[in-house]
Amino acid sequence: MSDKVAITLTINGRDHAIAVEPRRTLADAIREDCGQTGTHIGCEHGVCGACTVIVNGEPVRSCLMFAAQAAGKKIRTVEGLANGDELHPLQRAFMDHHGLQCGFCTPGFLMLAAGVLEREPDISDDDLLDVLSSNLCRCTGYQNIIKAVRAAAKEMRAK
Amino acid sequence: MPSDGKFIGRSVPRLEDRPLLLGQGRFAADVSFPGQLHMRVVRSPIAHGRLIAVDTEAARARPGVHAVWTAADVADIPPIDFRLTRVAGLEPYRQHALASGRVRYVGDPVAVIFAEDPYLAEDAAEAVELEIEALPPILDAEAAPGEFLPGHSTEPVVIRKGYGDVDAAFRVASAIVELDLEIGRHSGVPLETRGAIARYDAARDVLEMHGAAKVPHWNRDQLARMLGREPASVQLYEGHVGGGFGVRGELYPEDVLACAAALRLRRPVKWVEDRRENLLACNHSRQQRHHIRAAVDAAGRILAIDDRFVTDQGGYVRTHGATVTDLAAAMLPGPYRVPAYRAAGHIRLTNKTPCGTYRAPGRFESTFVRERLMDAIAAKVGIDAIEVRRRNLISSQQMPYAVGLDTLGTTVVYDSGDYARLLDKALAGFGTNAREQVRARRARGERVGIGIAMFVEKSGLGPFDGVRITVDPSGAVEVVTGAASVGQGVETVIAQICAETLGVDYARVRVIHGQTDRIEKGLGAFASRVTVMTGEATRRAAVALRDKALAAAAELMQTPAASLAIVDGEIRRQDGSGPSMQLGAVAASLAKASPEGLTADGWFEFSHMVYPYGMHVVQLRVDAETGGVTVERYLVAYDIGRAVNPALVEGQIVGGVAQGIGGALLEEFLYDENGEPLSVTFADYLMPTAREQPRVEVIISEDAPSPLNPLGLKGAGEGGANAVGAAIAAAIDDALGMPGAITQLPVSPQRLKALLAKQR
To answer: B541 or B579: whose pLDDT is higher?
Structure first.
């Protein structure tokens, strides 16, 4: 399993030329080979969603994708969400609504919500709840995450 | 109600949030050092057996493997000791870093691989060959005790507590109520798995461990003792911590192995647990079975309670010693007058994952048992659930109320409270017509019900806490504390208390926690202690610092100190007239005059606990076809004396309710008849998602500030979880029209379907 392949991962618009084993997960490659540790690994079996990133516009669990499968695709992680010093509306809403406690699941929720709201800005509250129920949080009881995402959705629509 | 200050009592935004939102957090797995080795633990696949041989030869030959250890390599390291509730007789049941002789649960560490890459370490772990002679596993803690080791039974101790003449009360009782109740095996399961990154720095002769949490100072002292080093040559560093809930940050075998390896292999060693390991090896909690009896008079007043229970401890006794069993026994009486009481908590070793504490330890369990008992008493004497509680509540005139029991080295004395008033608040908050509406829906055939549960929590465990506050010449304020943060907002809350007392902006206060090289002592974050203990220590240090600053400024400004105040970091005359001076300028002046500059320590020594109290009200619907439960409404009323940051308190409560719902309806660690764990992924161990969680209404009550600290603080971390099992059980009874039907948590769809089948 030690034969490495050379690939380029494009993360937040920047190319990372890396060599990985075919079995290496996208999550490990993003974190360990590209140094972007904002993407967190919570279960490595695709349930918790802490490792959610956006690949070619769609939220993806990066623990369930091999790095080699993401070569040549556009990957977005939490590090690319803010515009310089200016927080993304979702980040600001999480702060305003106390949508995070320990913050470990937060990058996954932010990327899940960003991916969905970009594709479906007019998503109904109930459908949004379905989407958010695909990630796990152990601190907040979700109430403030839901509030924050709904507030950000409203703001993003108004723009 | 205390008046709000400029910062205390206000829901100011958290200081912690920005880096976490930007992806700049520094959790354990984010810490790396050049040249690090990756550690992988080889775990027993057998629940109980004689460990005959561990063959590591093939593993050593694997690519990238640097070393492989078995128990023989760490035979000089003593077992992990008790941090709390040390009871004579528990010592032989402690866990070593690696098992020898016997394996006692699936997941018991038997060998450890150190390799250049985590993938290679995992490959090598699979090449380790174990020879284990399987023994019959002990899986039922209720069964007669077996043998742990020759001469040591699987029941090391029985925790006994009580007062009054219980037998006499039962002789004169007009009715006796008896229940057999069971609580399942749950755990905190933080979203971040455990991790430890150890590094030996030869330049300073210091062993460092990163990824520390909860109790860094205690762990530092233990690691130093176990590895034969001076405490000052071992330092622990807490970064961001992805949730604690009682389980994370205790000293575990893996921490010891990583540190020993860093010392002996002279390479940094990184260990990050995977989720399967986390569900197998990190502390479990909760599993208890209670046989409880109450003697009552004709009006449903309690005369005595007699409880015998068994705690399923798992394979070893870890750092918590007898804590969970002890707390269950001590806190069971709750908010009620219990004239005579007897509890016997049997600690029983089984061949499952070892148990420790989990948010509201011993209280999630004993509240379920006590509140089930109250509902049964109501049914027995023919009064309703609210009335039976009113008749038995301790009144506010009886405060402070000595229960007559002790736990965690202190006597249980409820410091303040108006329980009846909180009951009224909660019922009013839920709506006086809610029960009518539910009855009407039931009449139309819906299985919908309401349940209530009341409880007393404990918080603010001493015996001490200290902080050091320093103002630098730029006016920045630094608070160094030996407390820890598990993600609950410690930095913000401590900054609020410091800012309020000192007269600065809270955003200028930097709070340093969990760094053993920054303060000599610290007790960490557990038992809802930080806001109370560290908060009061902070207030004291800030008062001392303010006095010192004003005395220095008085001289510089030629004005009596008594007429000066610090406002927004500026020292001014209280009447607003004349010149002013920046706090930083005073610090600069003091820095020239004395080596310590503008700094002050504050220590709070405290031998009691403070007791918040609360009530949960839940409305839910049972689906007879699926056995599923939909929680429609949830209300928590919680009196915590004084809320420093109400938004954060509410966050604690709502998050606690989610964990409670998990324990009441979804989460359970199950084992097959061989002791093979069945809940080792998030597809088997089911935690609530946004879909299962109802909207939680929170009433933060401040009727009963603690008289034991000047701010009136009580801890808020555990009341959200405490009574969920109890309230949901009562509501399901109500929905089914079957009083006393629920005797076991979690109420899984299978169990509920079985109950419904009985009803048909």
So the answer is: B541
Min Cα separation A114/chain B (Å): 13
| pTM (predicted TM-score) | 0.97
Alpha helices in B132-252 (DSSP H): 166-172, 216-227
Separation CA B429–CA B219 (nearest Å): 44
Rg, Å, chain B Cα set: 27
Q: Structural domain of residue A44, as residue ranges?
A: 5-80
β-strands B509-512, B477-481 pairing: parallel
Q: Would you say residue B4 has pLDDT above 80? A: no
Q: Which residues of B102-134 are buried (b: 16+ CB within 10 A; e: fewer)?
A: bbbbbbbbbbbbbbbebbbbebbbebbebebee
Q: Which two tokens stand for residue B235?
A: 């330092």
What is the predicted pLDDT for the residue at B593? 87
> How confident is the model at residue A2, as a pLDDT?
61
Average pLDDT of the segment spanning B579-583: 94
Structure tokens at A32: 């360990």
Average pLDDT of chain B is 97
B-chain residues within 8 Å CB-CB of A1? 119, 123
Cβ-based contacts of B20 with chain A (< 8 Å): 100, 103, 106
Question: Cβ B687–A139 below 8 Å, yes or no?
Answer: no
| Residue A123 contacts B, CB cutoff 8 Å | no
Specify the number of domains making up chain A.
2
Are residues A102 and B648, on separate chains, in Cβ contact within 8 Å?
A: no
pLDDT in tens, B383-409: 999 999 999 999 999 999 999 999 999
Partnered with residue B349 across adjacent β-strands are B314
Q: Which amino acid, B186? A: H
The span from the CA of B509 to the CA of B191, in Å, is: 29
ipTM: 0.98
Q: Judge if A110 and A60 occupy the same domain.
A: no
Length of chain A as a residue count: 159
CATH number for the domain that contains residue A52: 3.10.20.30
A144 and A101, same domain (yes or no):
yes
Which chain A residues in 45-104 lie under 8 Å from chain B, judged by CB atoms?
45, 47-48, 50, 77-79, 81-82, 87, 91, 94-96, 98, 100-104
